[in-house]
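pasting for the record
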Amino acid sequence: MIHHSTCDTALVPNEVLNQTKDDLLDRFDGLTAAPQTVLGIWKHEGQRYEDELGRFVVDVDDTEENQFFFANLKATLLERFQQIEIYMVSFPIERI
């Protein structure tokens, strides 16, 4: 299973990004942090937002324990990054 999340990196201090990386590494053996940003354009309550988004990718087994971890992590990240929403997805993968 892959989980990845994005956040607006334009105003995020490095220590906040590093804390998130550390949280993921404390729980799992590795992660991928994409150094390039992508433009996210979205609307919330009629207001348009344009954010520079960063991405962390973590490949993990699809377990209830991991799903619970990411649900709690999302709540933590919403507060840590002071975001209205954080895009986090999960989907099955096949290892080769």
